[in-house]
Amino acid sequence: MKKCYFDHVATNPLHPEVLDAMMPYFREEFGNPLSVYEYGVTAKNAIEEARGKVAGLINSKPSEIIFTSSGAEANNFALRGIAIARQNDGKHLIVSRVEHHSVLNSARFLEKSGFTVTYIPVDKKGFVDPDTVRKAITKETILISVTHASSEVGTIEPLKDIVKVARERNITVHSDAVATTGNIPVDVKDLGVDLLSMAAHQFYGPKGAGGIYIRQGLRIAPLIYGGIQESGRRAGTENVPAIVGMGKAAEMAGAEMQSRIEYLRPLRDRIIYVMSGIKNVYLTGGDKENRLPGHASFCVEFIEGEAMLLLLASKGIFSASGSACSSKALKASPVLLSMGIPSGLAQGSIVFSLGTGNTPEDIDYLLNEFQLVIKRLREISPYAQGWGDKEGGA
Amino acid sequence: MKKCYFDHVATNPLHPEVLDAMMPYFREEFGNPLSVYEYGVTAKNAIEEARGKVAGLINSKPSEIIFTSSGAEANNFALRGIAIARQNDGKHLIVSRVEHHSVLNSARFLEKSGFTVTYIPVDKKGFVDPDTVRKAITKETILISVTHASSEVGTIEPLKDIVKVARERNITVHSDAVATTGNIPVDVKDLGVDLLSMAAHQFYGPKGAGGIYIRQGLRIAPLIYGGIQESGRRAGTENVPAIVGMGKAAEMAGAEMQSRIEYLRPLRDRIIYVMSGIKNVYLTGGDKENRLPGHASFCVEFIEGEAMLLLLASKGIFSASGSACSSKALKASPVLLSMGIPSGLAQGSIVFSLGTGNTPEDIDYLLNEFQLVIKRLREISPYAQGWGDKEGGA
Fold first, then answer.
1. What pLDDT was estimated at residue B394?
2. Is A383 left (phi over 0), alpha (psi -120 to 50) or beta?
């Protein structure tokens, strides 16, 4: 059976050249980067070379990059590390309602620890309004955390404008850029953020490697205490092969970014064009310009996202119904609800996220099968009166 | 030049069979374990199989194992997670003075957060006395954290007796078993601990994979908040290949443990026998029975550990002067000082930790070169009067 992977926001396949770059560090170069002899020096040099490549991808200094094990760890580190470091300046945080669980649940943890959090609403396309952020600021506000782009609806947020608002006060800005780093241009100096989270497996790098940009001079408490790794900011023996892979993936993403974007956008736009033409199928999220280049998300009326997923999967088409981190929860997505999408419609969420391995033929196959799946599910849906002619029921 | 790696407490080479087991998850099986379609199911099953193997190694239930990115993360999770979960029961912790930095610095972080910590001394061989622990207990004590074995001096602590002391009260016990898991028998039911940390790269598994045993029913706050991975206890996309590798390494360690121990002990004992016979060279740490099977550590009078390391390294002999996590700090080891070793002597610390790849010929080479290195360094040491005949100086 044909297999079409359209769930690149869940994870990417590892690029074979990235794996090749990692292999020596699984074999002869197994040293601990803190060791003073040659095995250690080689490992240490490999990490620093990777740090330079990741820094190059986002236009930071190498010393502003700290490696973590995941984007989730980076997000926890940012929120809780700044909360601790700045608690004497105030105890109020602002986060958007379209944040990843690792941001939202870090914020909830801080609420239990004496902080207050304002959860900023978004408009119907998922955009955060910088003016809404401005109005939420209090004298106590120390941190604003807004995602660079939502992996659920593909909306790229007006981060630069949000940073401007924060700069009027002395407020630290963090952005979860896990969905964007390596996929669209991310320039921390241009964006002006203080902290930015990323994950290698979102740009054809390995799982187990994430990173956080920490602007030079910014004070932050560690999340993982221990040894002197990562300038004392993140303890634990470095995952050398994964870090090397993240560096290689960053280098490739930088070099190939424009061609990747130019390849993905037309494929995405074709999906959006055809699917938006189907009755009762609604595009969710941002417009084409402010949308992840390989991201097409929809709500389908009268149909459960989970049922679509499984039927599509039976045809070798692999997609998602929301964030992978909650895809087994079978609840309407908080992100979609925050955009004002009614709960019933939000249940019919489906997300196609494309990668460089997808071909135009894959898209043809998807579009054809998707229409058949919708037709079939609507035929058996008790809610689809007025759309199909059949009565529902078991 | 001959290369002899004697620093297995810093990190182990990855076993080639472990790497083979990991490879499919770097290639075709790249799915996110939370995805509902086949790539996800395969990845999820691989993780659960690995969990079963790790559980088998330490005699726990699979559901009692949570994967982390490192032993340091596991230690942070244990101390801070229990501190948060039990803060209403009390705010006092007990840790030993021979703990890893990730335990000690987590404890110091908790001290800044309103907890008090008693740091338990050890005897001259590095043993924690259960009676000393008993005397340190207050009505406020919620957690005792004592390492299963020190990677610096190889001493295996009387953990079972310490657990008995804790059981007299309702005190949670954590043990950092990073140095022991996979290397000597670790049976969490027999030990009676509530939490136990481990790291795959300490038993020929990959870097980037650690784990923590959490006794069924024990309440603990997460360290990394976010999605529903690891039963909601540890967020972040799972590092599937590394977890699979940890499972394979655990399976192999269980099957080969006795033969590995029987191979390593005589090599270790030969090092201890010969080196202890050299004038002004002193064995540090526990006796043979209560010592890691491949671990031989010494203090050499009148000589800097760092100088020994570098000269040995120039002969292709790779060893450590203390914990890898602080080996660049060039200070006398707190572990050695806590054992009552004078600061000057503690500077001459050197640790040889053996692995299954070391041959008897490697040991011959080490013993021969070590004596030459000591002789050479003493000839140039200004402190070695009475040992050599030459005057020191530059």
1. 34
2. alpha
